[in-house]
Predict the structure.
Amino acid sequence: MVAAISRKRFLTGWTAFIILFFLFFVILPTIYILSYAFTEWGSIEALLEDQGRMDLIWGAIGASFQIAGIVTVIDIVTGLPMAWMLVRKDFRGKNLLDTLIDMPLAVPTAALGFSSAMFFAITDESLQAPSFALGTIGSPYLLIILLHVVFSYPYMVRSLSAILVQIDQTYETAGRTLGASPLTAARTITLPLFRAGLVTGIILCFARSLSETGGTMIALATMANARGFATGPTLIGEWKDALDSQPDLAAPLAFVSILLILLSLALLVVIKLVVMRVHLPMGRIWPRPERLLSRGVFPKVKDGLAVLFLVVFVLVPSFFIFTYVGSVEPTAFDWAPFIRSLLYSFLIAGVVTGIDIALGVPLALYIAKNRSGRLAGALDVLVNVPLIVPTAALGYSLGVFWASQEIVPTHDVLLIVLAHVAFTYPLVVRNVAGAVEEVDPAYEETARTLGARPVQAFRRVLYPMVKSSILAGAIMAFTRSLGETGATQAVVANAQTAPVYIVDLINLETAAGYYSAGLACIMLIVISFLFMLALRYVTNRRAR
Amino acid sequence: MPEVRLEGLGKRYGNLTAVNNVHLTVHDGEYVTVLGPSGCGKTTLIRMIAGIIEPTEGKVYIDGRDMAGVPIEDRDIGYVFQNIALFPHLTVKDNVSYGPRARALPPEEQLRVSRRFLELVRLLDRMGMFPDELCGGEQQKAALARALASGSRLLLLDEPLSALDSRVRVDLRYELRRLAKELGLTTIHVTHDQEEAQSVSDRIVLMRAGAIVETGTPEELYARPKHIFTANFIGETNLLEGWVVEIRDGISVIELRNGGKVEVHQTDHSVGDAVVISVRPEFMYPADEGMRAVVRGITYMGTYWRVKAETEDDEEVDFDMATLDGNLLTIGKDVYLAVNPKAAVLYPRPEDGVEEAIRLE
Ligand SMILES: Nc1ncnc2c1ncn2[C@@H]1O[C@H](COP(=O)(O)OP(=O)(O)OP(=O)(O)O)[C@@H](O)[C@H]1O
Ligand SMILES: [Mg+2]
């Protein structure tokens, strides 16, 4: 009896601790900067008068949102035929195509930025880009769009095909027996069933593009003439860097962060409403033209274009850097600082992942099991906030939050870890909560009626079923932390993580600097690949 | 008008032959069921007719037209799927009007057609509901209305009733036949349920392991099946092994393995041939002499008693007794069983044995 009561108390205490951790270490720091608008309204009012700064801010924020929107549209238009082909068709080389699409995911965005910019953009003389590079893009705006397509395209294709496999093909066949051509059936039957999943894909893509910092900064640095162009996150990075020498940047920094946070959250709501409500002109059917487009060369041309797009706009820019390092005169490479930055990055990613699992899995269990309750429902919504907010804004907000108190000491590494936890923690929670909900609660209940105590029931029954989702969440958290630049720079301006180190090399604008950056990128790619292979090996072995 | 002709139709998946060399003509306005055990290739066959699967051999003709290379949507068929497959995002009405909509009929015409067919399946009051708000029987009717509303005169049904409970199933089968006949449709109906096949069809095509065993009217397949497999698969039967010992006046006398003798009105075998006799339980009855057996079980079936008896060489024999006579027998009692000579059918004894001949695959 006594034991039962103390166990219950312990459980309640533990649950409270987990929820408090989430609220005070993840959510509150993420949006803390919003309070700046109340406490320091005066300085924001002054900023609003400063025409020059306001132009910069609106320009950067506008560019960020426009780019994210355009990138998402391009991803959907080009990703949908690709997803369709992978899910609904059988052809030789399908497995190869499937693997190729995932390859850019293993390339850290910093390396992607350098590699893509070198392929697409007009670059500095001293860079000596290979002669077969495209080398024609002179507009930083266009370059960033292309870069963001490179890294978000695989995500879009993956999320679209994940939904598509779940839609029974019989529906389409049924439509065709009723006289609809393949195109008509796909458009009027499969696509509407697709909507809810499409929202997820769009939000994911939008948020990633809005948040991307490292690759964007590197691409802009690589480009010959990008001075003056900034996106929201790169503006935060730039100003944070200068904050020590120009303390009056605090207000603009806070203002940009507030705008990014509020607008991205508003956008989340708008996207959900628009995609679910908007009634596209799907009702009408044009039998003849649609039939024509379903036959003969059209489907083949469509598939061909989809593959061509993948190769030219995703694969080649991702791996172009290999041709550069192979073709240019080698110079001396200074290993020590690179290795140091790499270790620093890995150390942070490792610690962050550990915290995410230890404190994220319990929250996921709580949310999944009390789904109908108010508190769990609210937590479930809140968990998405750090995923949507651009990480640079999140990082700045978090830095200000921890600086504003005196209980927890603020050390650089600690701040970076806390910032990375804030935006990776939700990945673990969402993965695990999703998997737990899929598991029939009857399993665990059966185990308990057979005499297992709750902790045992979890370890013996539930854990084996959800451990792959824990692993998946951990992999995502680790790789996101490893590749992150925006949040890192926004909390600690001169943190020496691997991506920041590469930016510094490029900013030297010397042949040796570029070469070293290229070499560092390649090593980063190779390490990521090995790491992913190892994880895949472990996952497969565990799953068996 | 739709007539379906299959010539040497076959489908292979690597080494596995799902359908093998099927020749069949379904006439205009005919209601044909394709009957066979699970996995015998029924779905594969009907999907090849619809164009959902490409055959590896042979041809499909609809209305005399070769269907090779003609896509599903141009075959002008109505198809009801094994798993119903109503569009979950559309209401019942919109499901039914999908066919007219796909052919870009004006909206008022779409509505008129869907009302007409919903009325025909008596589902007009469910028009505005979504498929998951209907019960199984209603979903199946909606799927049927949707197939009919496409205006096709050829209806293909893949196990349309298999997901329903037995009462609804029985009601719906009559509904199916009534509609098909009322609308003058040519219907190919796939099922593994022999009772269903018998009660709805003009003609049954019996399949086994990808090939047609036999086709005929329900009555022919029940009363005079040409193959032991048919005799066993359609209805219930006793298969007794023996030899022809005498032939006289249009009667063959068969001596059974257990020594009993049975007379059969069929003389296409010669004395000394090894044969199998198929006798339905309702054509076997207790008499003063014949095959000796011990009663092992009596089950009340409603309109008759089913008696299970064991012969001297341990074979099980089933026979029926009228309800009023049931109390004449008790378990453990010895009986002599006689066979109605007109209703028994003789087959040459299969080389691989009876078991092999009636195996489902
Ligand atoms: N795509 C496929 N690849 C390989 N084998 C297949 C395929 N489709 C069907 N088969 C095989 O072909 C055979 C016939 O299958 P089919 O679905 O036509 O049977 P069925 O008579 O409809 O069975 P059921 O009554 O269970 O629906 C089966 O042995 C099945 O395993
Ligand atoms: Mg089937």
Q: What stands out?
A: Chain B touches chain A at residues 50, 52, 71-73, 76-79, 81, 83, 85, 87-89, 98-99, 101-104, 146-147, 150 (CB under 8 Å). Residues 166-182 of chain B form the longest helix (17 residues).
